[in-house]
Amino acid sequence: MSQPPLIVTAHVNDEDLQFFDALRTRFFPPDRNFLRAHVTMFHKLPPEHRLQIDDALLNAAQMTGPIEVEVTGVRNMGNGVSFVLESEDLARLRENLRTAFKLRLGPQDLEPWRPHVTVQNKVHWQKADALYDMLSSEFVRRTIRLEGVDLWSYMQGPWRHERFFRSGQRVDKPR
After folding, report:
1. Is the pTM of this model over 0.90?
2. At what angle do helices 88-100 and 50-63 cross, to 10 degrees?
3. What are the pLDDT digits (tens) for 51-70?
4. Checking CA distances to 66, which of 101, 115, 146, 148 falls within 20 to 30 Å?
5. How confident is the model at residue 1 (pLDDT cuts 50, 70, 90)?
6. What residue spans of 64-171 are helical by DSSP H?
7. Which domain covers residue 37, as residue numbers?
8. Structural domain includes residue 172
9. Would you place residue 171 in the very low, low, confident or very high pLDDT band (cuts 50, 70, 90)?
């Protein structure tokens, strides 16, 4: 049996995540909503390189402190809605990891990265338009805090959490 692909997400502070989670719970199709709101950094890394991926994530987390990210707008994705995120520090972290993973990236992860938090997906465009209009009219810029990165296994729907790499945390590797 083959191992599931790996996913990397930015770890949003729990207090900041509550806002997005409440919207996701309310507007994401319940039969497809297996996860809390999240910021995907890499969609499909090969599980056979797990040790090297862990090392890269550990090194990146150790070299990075908590990151402040601006929520700058609402995006209509056609069949869903997300919040747009902007941060030079987050972009730099992602680019450093992209360099570390360069030989292991699939087509989706080679595309330009547009960080976001999805609160609705896989709905009819009219539902997406209505939510976009509502969230755009109520939108207020905010800052959220990222505290590291998470590694997940994709289980053909649900994700299984594998490990949290906390920003700035020094961890001695076993010898």
Report:
1. yes
2. 150
3. 999 999 999 999 999 999 99
4. 101
5. low
6. 88-100, 107-110, 125-138
7. 6-166
8. no
9. low
